[in-house]
Amino acid sequence: MRVLVIGSGGREHALCWSIAASPLADRLYCAPGNAGIAEEAECVALRPGDTAGIIAFCRRAAIDFVVVGPEAPLVGGLVDALEGEGIAAFGPNRAAAALEGSKGFMKDLCAREAIPTGRYRRFRDAAAAKAYIAAEGAPIVVKADGLAAGKGVTVAATVVEASAAVDAALGEGRFGAAGAEIVVEEYLEGEEASFFDLVDGANALPLAAAQDHKRVGDGDTGPNTGGMGAYSPAVAVTPAIEGQVMERIILPTVRAMGRDGRPFKGVLYAGLMLTAEGPKLLEYNVRFGDPETQALMMRLKSDLLPALIASRDGNLKDVDLRWYDEAALCVVMAAKGYPDDPQRGSEIRGLDRAASDPDIKIFHAGTRSDGTRLLADGGRVLGVTARGADLTLARERAYRAVDRIDWPEGFCRRDIGRRGGA
């Protein structure tokens, strides 16, 4: 098969690395890719939002299967356009991608199907939103309804902070159309976890669970980011918890989407809060998580590509994925200034030495080549990922590799995996 992966981040590098190992993949392309992805696939200078250009390339290169990584082209209907041209694609269509594209849509579905989640209200009027916040009190969560590049969520510790978040979205238009409506929801307490399933429209196949670290600083301090590290398996997601998540959250969602004429195919990623009352849904993403995917792909023993094809074709009931019992942990190295104003263009050295251990893989998230030099070209730049017999060993290996990288302009959290007991 000739396969095209869409995207340029650490998630796409991990997917390309896994797909490149498949005996089914004769040629692998990535659009646009990055300096690390170029070691696994042929990079094509196409933006994920260039639907016409992607279709033209698929025709030219006789692409058999497209794997769409980021959320924006999924919500924008890239899969619809590809399938409309007879090009097989992995990921939900526009109607199904609304599970991530509109937080209000997702919460309304939960309310209708009695899926456990936090209390919420939807608002377009700032005064009404502030009145609701004043009545509910803090802490409380304010979310832009649409896609806001990971920056549309405020976990407000005070009513004043929550009101400022309302003003930013509805008053100042900081998130554009994505923030024209907001969701104000209950703050849930407990342990967070990421739960991934492949879905084929009717069947759901659970993947390994992971735990992400969203805040930029050690001890979960500072602003939220796209993710500063992750590990798998998530100790808190026991077999009993997994059963509850499937029965109360995932399967009711899959059934409801099919019943509503929006059958979901692709990856359904549930952001969970494991509360004293049981697991509750924080959000759905309609694609692989980043940096959780880096840890998951290090643990995946099976060939990923046939499972992605089965998801698209509706044959997941015949798929059984196997995983290494070992743990995997990913430490994100980001450019100084991230998440607000990351510095670009600094040189990164020492990756070969850092990745000399066979249990280490360094996934590139925001890099570019300049001759023989490797330069930072984004906020999150590298995902230093290690596998080990247990989480403690995986953590030690990952940070040993981090310390071998010569990049003074980069930084990372030093406590990834601590919540898992490492």
Task: Please outline the helices and strands.
Elements (H helix, E strand, L loop, with lengths): L1 E6 L2 H11 L6 E6 L9 E2 L7 H11 L3 E4 L2 H5 L2 H7 L3 E3 L7 H4 L1 H11 L6 E4 L2 H11 L3 E5 L8 E4 L2 H13 L10 E5 L4 E10 L3 E3 L4 E2 L2 E3 L3 E4 L4 E4 L6 H21 L5 E11 L2 E8 L6 H8 L4 H10 L13 E9 L11 E2 L2 H4 L5 E5 L2 E4 L2 E4 L3 E9 L2 H14 L5 E2 L11
Parallel strand pairs: 1-2, 1-4, 2-3, 4-5
Antiparallel strand pairs: 6-9, 7-8, 7-9, 10-11, 10-16, 12-15, 13-14, 15-18, 16-17, 18-23, 18-24, 19-22, 20-23, 21-22
Helix pairs in contact: 1-10, 7-8
Can you give me a brief rundown of this structure?
This protein has 422 residues and is an alpha+beta fold. Helices cover 31% and strands 28% of the residues.
Descriptors for this entry?
422 residues, alpha+beta, Rossmann fold, Dna Ligase, domain 1, 4 domains, five-stranded parallel β-sheet
